[in-house]
Design brief:
Number of domains: 1
Structural class: mainly alpha
Radius of gyration: 17 Å
Largest sheet: 2 strands, antiparallel
Strand order of the largest sheet: 1-2
Shape: globular
Distance between the termini: 44 Å
Helix content: 25-40%
Strand content: 5-15%
Number of strands: 4
Length: 220
Protein backbone atom coordinates (compact mmCIF):
# COMPACT_ATOMS: atom_id res chain seq x y z
CA UNK A 1 0.00 0.00 0.00
CA UNK A 2 1.70 3.13 -1.23
CA UNK A 3 2.53 5.86 1.26
CA UNK A 4 2.01 3.83 4.42
CA UNK A 5 4.60 4.29 7.17
CA UNK A 6 5.07 0.52 7.64
CA UNK A 7 5.10 -1.03 4.14
CA UNK A 8 6.49 -4.35 5.46
CA UNK A 9 3.12 -5.06 7.06
CA UNK A 10 1.41 -5.40 3.70
CA UNK A 11 -2.22 -6.45 3.85
CA UNK A 12 -2.04 -7.28 7.56
CA UNK A 13 -2.21 -3.66 8.68
CA UNK A 14 -5.43 -1.67 8.91
CA UNK A 15 -4.17 1.89 8.56
CA UNK A 16 -6.59 3.90 6.44
CA UNK A 17 -8.07 7.38 6.46
CA UNK A 18 -10.30 6.63 9.45
CA UNK A 19 -9.43 8.56 12.60
CA UNK A 20 -11.24 9.21 15.86
CA UNK A 21 -13.44 12.34 15.87
CA UNK A 22 -11.41 13.81 18.77
CA UNK A 23 -8.57 14.46 16.31
CA UNK A 24 -10.60 17.22 14.64
CA UNK A 25 -12.09 18.73 17.80
CA UNK A 26 -11.07 22.40 18.02
CA UNK A 27 -11.66 22.68 21.77
CA UNK A 28 -9.35 19.72 22.42
CA UNK A 29 -6.69 21.33 20.24
CA UNK A 30 -7.08 24.68 22.04
CA UNK A 31 -6.63 22.95 25.40
CA UNK A 32 -3.55 21.20 23.99
CA UNK A 33 -2.01 24.51 22.86
CA UNK A 34 -2.71 26.27 26.16
CA UNK A 35 -1.43 23.32 28.18
CA UNK A 36 1.67 22.99 25.99
CA UNK A 37 2.58 26.65 26.42
CA UNK A 38 2.28 26.42 30.21
CA UNK A 39 4.17 23.12 30.16
CA UNK A 40 7.01 24.51 28.06
CA UNK A 41 7.42 27.47 30.43
CA UNK A 42 7.77 24.99 33.31
CA UNK A 43 10.15 22.89 31.20
CA UNK A 44 12.39 25.90 30.57
CA UNK A 45 12.50 26.67 34.31
CA UNK A 46 13.32 23.05 35.19
CA UNK A 47 15.89 22.55 32.42
CA UNK A 48 18.82 24.25 34.17
CA UNK A 49 18.66 22.38 37.51
CA UNK A 50 17.96 19.10 35.69
CA UNK A 51 20.95 19.70 33.39
CA UNK A 52 23.19 20.30 36.40
CA UNK A 53 22.17 17.13 38.27
CA UNK A 54 22.43 15.04 35.09
CA UNK A 55 26.03 16.20 34.63
CA UNK A 56 26.91 15.14 38.16
CA UNK A 57 25.17 11.79 37.78
CA UNK A 58 25.89 10.76 34.18
CA UNK A 59 27.52 13.50 32.04
CA UNK A 60 26.03 13.93 28.59
CA UNK A 61 23.07 15.45 26.74
CA UNK A 62 20.12 16.67 28.80
CA UNK A 63 17.60 15.68 26.12
CA UNK A 64 16.84 12.30 24.62
CA UNK A 65 14.85 11.69 21.47
CA UNK A 66 13.32 8.51 20.17
CA UNK A 67 11.18 7.55 17.20
CA UNK A 68 7.61 6.78 18.21
CA UNK A 69 4.45 6.14 16.19
CA UNK A 70 1.58 8.57 16.31
CA UNK A 71 -1.75 9.02 14.57
CA UNK A 72 -2.31 6.22 12.01
CA UNK A 73 1.19 4.95 12.77
CA UNK A 74 3.02 8.01 11.47
CA UNK A 75 6.57 8.11 12.93
CA UNK A 76 7.70 11.20 14.83
CA UNK A 77 10.51 12.18 17.20
CA UNK A 78 9.51 12.22 20.86
CA UNK A 79 11.52 14.32 23.34
CA UNK A 80 12.35 13.59 26.98
CA UNK A 81 14.82 14.63 29.65
CA UNK A 82 17.42 11.88 29.51
CA UNK A 83 16.87 9.29 32.24
CA UNK A 84 19.13 6.54 30.89
CA UNK A 85 22.80 6.11 30.12
CA UNK A 86 24.05 7.21 26.71
CA UNK A 87 23.47 4.59 23.97
CA UNK A 88 20.82 2.88 26.09
CA UNK A 89 18.83 1.91 23.00
CA UNK A 90 21.75 -0.13 21.68
CA UNK A 91 21.73 -2.16 24.93
CA UNK A 92 17.99 -2.86 24.99
CA UNK A 93 18.44 -6.40 23.66
CA UNK A 94 20.51 -7.23 26.75
CA UNK A 95 17.66 -6.38 29.15
CA UNK A 96 14.94 -8.85 30.06
CA UNK A 97 11.44 -7.75 29.10
CA UNK A 98 9.11 -8.25 32.07
CA UNK A 99 6.03 -7.17 30.14
CA UNK A 100 3.68 -9.36 28.11
CA UNK A 101 3.05 -8.52 24.48
CA UNK A 102 4.21 -5.64 22.34
CA UNK A 103 5.59 -3.33 25.05
CA UNK A 104 8.90 -3.27 26.89
CA UNK A 105 9.26 -2.86 30.67
CA UNK A 106 11.82 -3.82 33.26
CA UNK A 107 11.32 -2.69 36.86
CA UNK A 108 15.07 -2.79 37.57
CA UNK A 109 16.41 -1.66 34.21
CA UNK A 110 20.17 -1.09 34.83
CA UNK A 111 20.31 1.50 32.05
CA UNK A 112 18.33 3.99 34.13
CA UNK A 113 20.58 6.47 35.96
CA UNK A 114 20.13 7.51 39.60
CA UNK A 115 18.68 10.89 38.67
CA UNK A 116 16.75 9.12 35.91
CA UNK A 117 14.84 7.10 38.50
CA UNK A 118 13.73 10.32 40.16
CA UNK A 119 12.81 11.93 36.85
CA UNK A 120 10.66 8.93 35.97
CA UNK A 121 8.96 8.64 39.36
CA UNK A 122 8.06 12.33 39.24
CA UNK A 123 7.26 12.23 35.47
CA UNK A 124 9.62 15.20 34.99
CA UNK A 125 11.32 13.31 32.17
CA UNK A 126 8.11 13.72 30.13
CA UNK A 127 8.03 17.53 30.22
CA UNK A 128 9.88 18.13 26.90
CA UNK A 129 6.99 16.33 25.20
CA UNK A 130 4.97 19.50 25.63
CA UNK A 131 6.83 20.54 22.45
CA UNK A 132 5.35 17.51 20.66
CA UNK A 133 1.92 18.61 21.91
CA UNK A 134 2.44 22.17 20.67
CA UNK A 135 3.47 20.96 17.20
CA UNK A 136 0.40 18.71 17.02
CA UNK A 137 2.23 15.37 16.95
CA UNK A 138 0.78 14.54 20.36
CA UNK A 139 -2.10 15.61 22.58
CA UNK A 140 -2.21 16.23 26.32
CA UNK A 141 -4.50 13.20 26.58
CA UNK A 142 -4.42 10.21 24.28
CA UNK A 143 -2.88 6.76 23.96
CA UNK A 144 0.60 5.58 24.87
CA UNK A 145 2.91 6.25 21.86
CA UNK A 146 4.47 2.95 20.72
CA UNK A 147 7.89 2.37 19.17
CA UNK A 148 8.19 1.16 15.55
CA UNK A 149 9.47 -2.27 16.64
CA UNK A 150 6.34 -2.68 18.74
CA UNK A 151 4.04 -1.58 15.91
CA UNK A 152 5.51 -3.95 13.34
CA UNK A 153 4.26 -6.83 15.51
CA UNK A 154 0.70 -5.50 15.80
CA UNK A 155 -2.29 -7.72 15.15
CA UNK A 156 -5.28 -6.18 13.29
CA UNK A 157 -7.22 -5.24 16.45
CA UNK A 158 -4.22 -3.34 17.83
CA UNK A 159 -4.33 -0.72 15.07
CA UNK A 160 -7.47 0.93 16.40
CA UNK A 161 -5.47 2.41 19.27
CA UNK A 162 -3.60 4.51 16.68
CA UNK A 163 -6.78 6.24 15.47
CA UNK A 164 -6.19 8.99 18.05
CA UNK A 165 -3.11 11.11 18.72
CA UNK A 166 -0.73 9.75 21.33
CA UNK A 167 -0.94 11.57 24.64
CA UNK A 168 1.26 12.81 27.44
CA UNK A 169 -1.25 11.07 29.65
CA UNK A 170 -4.23 8.79 29.27
CA UNK A 171 -6.06 5.87 30.76
CA UNK A 172 -2.81 3.93 31.30
CA UNK A 173 -1.27 6.79 33.29
CA UNK A 174 -4.25 7.11 35.60
CA UNK A 175 -4.87 3.38 35.94
CA UNK A 176 -1.53 1.98 37.01
CA UNK A 177 1.27 3.70 35.09
CA UNK A 178 4.25 1.32 35.24
CA UNK A 179 2.19 -1.46 36.86
CA UNK A 180 0.33 -2.10 33.59
CA UNK A 181 2.61 -4.73 32.04
CA UNK A 182 0.25 -6.64 29.75
CA UNK A 183 -0.05 -5.10 26.28
CA UNK A 184 -3.60 -6.34 25.81
CA UNK A 185 -4.57 -4.39 28.95
CA UNK A 186 -2.94 -1.29 27.44
CA UNK A 187 -4.97 -1.79 24.28
CA UNK A 188 -8.16 -2.19 26.31
CA UNK A 189 -7.47 1.04 28.21
CA UNK A 190 -6.75 2.88 24.95
CA UNK A 191 -9.95 1.64 23.30
CA UNK A 192 -11.95 2.47 26.43
CA UNK A 193 -10.61 6.01 26.18
CA UNK A 194 -11.77 6.33 22.58
CA UNK A 195 -15.24 5.12 23.54
CA UNK A 196 -15.56 7.44 26.56
CA UNK A 197 -13.90 10.47 24.97
CA UNK A 198 -15.22 13.97 25.46
CA UNK A 199 -13.57 17.29 26.27
CA UNK A 200 -14.83 16.99 29.85
CA UNK A 201 -13.39 13.47 30.11
CA UNK A 202 -10.01 14.77 28.91
CA UNK A 203 -10.05 17.43 31.63
CA UNK A 204 -10.97 14.77 34.20
CA UNK A 205 -8.00 12.61 33.14
CA UNK A 206 -5.66 15.62 33.32
CA UNK A 207 -6.74 16.34 36.91
CA UNK A 208 -6.44 12.65 37.84
CA UNK A 209 -2.96 12.52 36.28
CA UNK A 210 -1.78 15.45 38.38
CA UNK A 211 -3.02 13.67 41.52
CA UNK A 212 -1.36 10.39 40.48
CA UNK A 213 1.96 12.07 39.66
CA UNK A 214 2.06 14.08 42.90
CA UNK A 215 1.33 10.93 44.91
CA UNK A 216 3.74 8.83 42.83
CA UNK A 217 1.00 6.19 42.64
CA UNK A 218 1.95 3.37 40.28
CA UNK A 219 5.53 4.60 39.84
CA UNK A 220 7.23 4.75 43.25
Amino acid sequence: MKGLPFPWLGDRQLIDNKVHHSVYNKTKRLIDIMGAIIGLILTAILAIPIFIVIQFDDPGPILYRQTRCGLRGKPFQIWKFRSMIINADQQKHLIKNEAKGHIFKNSKDPRITKIGKFLRRSSLDEFPQFWNVLTGEMSLVGTRPPTPDEVEKYQPHHWQRLQVKPGLTGEWQVNGRSTVINFENVVKLDLDYQEKWSVVYDLKLIVQTIIVVLSCRGAC
